[in-house]
Write a structure and sequence with these properties.
Layout: H1 2-29, H2 46-54, H3 62-70, E1 125-129, E2 164-168, H4 178-184, E3 189-194, H5 196-212, E4 219-225, E5 228-233, E6 238-244, E7 250-253, E8 259-262, E9 278-281, E10 298-301, E11 304-306, H6 310-328, E12 335-339, H7 369-380, E13 386-389, H8 392-396, H9 417-420, H10 423-426, H11 437-448
Parallel strand pairs: 3-6, 3-9, 8-10, 9-12, 12-13
Antiparallel strand pairs: 1-2, 4-5, 5-6, 7-8, 10-11
Membrane topology: Single-pass type II membrane protein
Subcellular location: Golgi apparatus membrane
Protein name: Trichome birefringence-like N-terminal domain-containing protein
Length: about 450
């Protein structure tokens, strides 16, 4: 009996030791959050919205308010020149998840299918009016939002455009919990690289994070340069950054003040994004500019001026970008996204005076299809896995979500009454109001981070 008792005691001690080891391992592994398998995409509680409605937003920390007051970043004719980035992009000759702070923020979760073998497609769905769940925040809570996109502050009288929720088919309903978003992004660096539409998305995500924070004073806005801006949430060691690079390849100003678009080089500043946890690229709009709006005077390749059609130049630039990603980005450390074209609503589908989404599918695409297929083809050819975040169609339906005449002029001031009466001249049907559509882009981005990378959705 004594030997049996001793044996039992030994087994008990061994079990205790094993449990202690497992517990310690769990603590070590927990230093970087894991993403659980998504379950449901269901709307967050009305009680949280009611609590938000009763809670006035706290005043912005002085450093955030000061940064906001100093920041009036409007699109210009061309990006500022930068230093070359060597030969990495040189053309080759062989051609061709979530408790809240004072405001909700999205961390979507949903099932990957409907139980019958059909995959949940986040980008196939419809817009549902859901004023109980949207907007995800109020513009007044985000003092660093640029005046260009704060439409209500610029006098827009309707608020319905803020209250639409994207509902993917077969995915259930959306659920958002701000604290889980913060945990998902803890110790992570997210970088947006591209044009003002990616800046639109960067502002949205920074605001989503900011309004979910328990202590908003523990944030910082850094204007490193006119081309580089950072939002930091110190308590979560999280940063969301924006690099201005509308062509992805380098635009250089020569000594004679002419501008050369170098199809085989990337801007030097892109070295700084290497090692980020998530990088979201985009380009497109600036390639369609003509006449006085075109940013370059000539194209260069291998240091020599070349003549070629816009489609070919666009393709060569994307090939340079794709090679740069393949040579510089470690896919075991960094998730790469390429956000698809953000549609404009001009001409037949004009955004002026629109207050509801398009529902009858009468969409007239404005962006050349050949440029879209060029983007997809180059992403598919990459060795590095890249997720094509195809937000184009769901955004085409949101004819109501642009600033229109509720924006600012180049001096950073809201349009005057007289200017609003000239919508053909002043209506902005390219960018998006915030809160608004880019919040949904970020919902899908955060959701996609919980999925295995795909080449083209």
């Amino acid at each position: 009996m004594d030997s049996i008792a001793a044996s039992s005691a030994q087994r008990g001690a061994l079990c205790s030791l094993l449990c202690l080891c497992l517990f310690s391992a769990g603590l070590l592994l927990g230093s970087r959050p894991f993403f659980p398998t998504p379950r449901l995409w269901e709307h967050f509680s009305r009680a949280q919205q009611q609590r938000l409605a009763r809670t006035a937003p706290p005043p912005a920390p002085p450093h955030v308010a000061a940064a906001a007051a100093a920041y009036h970043d409007h699109d210009v004719e061309a990006p500022a020149p930068d230093v070359g980035y060597g030969d990495i992009g040189r053309e080759e000759e062989d051609d061709e998840e979530m408790g809240l702070g004072s405001a909700p923020a999205p961390a979507p979760a949903w099932e990957d299918g409907d139980g019958e073998g059909r995959e949940c497609d986040l980008l196939d769905g419809s817009w549902v009016h859901d004023p109980a769940s949207y907007p995800l925040y109020q513009a007044a809570e985000c003092p660093f939002l640029s005046d260009q996109v704060t439409c209500r502050r610029n006098g827009r009288p309707d608020a319905g455009y803020e209250q639409w929720r994207w509902q993917p088919r077969g995915c259930g309903s959306a659920r958002f919990r701000g604290a889980e978003v913060l945990e998902q992004l803890r110790n992570r660096r997210l970088v947006f690289v591209g044009d003002s539409l990616n800046r639109n998305m960067w502002e949205s995500l920074a605001c989503i994070i900011y309004t979910a924070l328990p202590d908003r004073s523990r944030t910082r806005i850094e204007d490193v340069s006119s081309e580089y801006r950072i939002f930091r949430a110190m308590d979560y060691n999280c940063s969301v950054e924006f690099f201005w690079s509308p062509f992805l390849v380098k635009l250089e100003t020569k000594q004679n003040q002419t501008k050369a678009l170098k199809l085989d080089q990337l801007p030097t500043m892109l070295k700084q994004v290497v090692g980020a946890d998530v990088i979201i690229f985009n380009t497109g709009h600036w390639w369609t500019h003509t006449g006085k709006l075109r940013a370059w005077d000539h194209l260069e390749r291998n240091g020599v001026i070349v003549e070629m059609e816009g489609e070919e130049a666009f393709n060569r630039a994307l090939r340079t970008w794709a090679r740069w990603v393949d040579h510089n980005i470690d896919p075991t450390r960094t998730r790469v996204f390429f956000r698809s074209i953000s549609p404009e609503h001009k001409s037949a589908n004009w955004c002026y005076n629109q207050t509801t989404p398009i529902t009858n599918e009468t969409i007239i695409p404005w962006f050349p299809k050949i440029l879209i297929s060029t983007i997809q083809r180059n992403i598919q050819s990459m060795k590095t896995p890249a997720t094509y975040l195809n937000i184009t169609h769901l955004s085409e339906l949101r004819i109501d979500a642009h600033p229109s005449v509720y924006t600012t002029n180049r001096d950073g001031k809201p349009l005057s009454t007289q200017q609003r009466q000239q919508p053909i001249t002043y209506a902005d049907c390219s960018h998006w109001c915030l809160p608004g559509l880019p919040d949904t882009w970020n919902v899908i981005l955060l959701a996609s981070l919980m999925r295995h990378p795909s080449i083209v959705h």
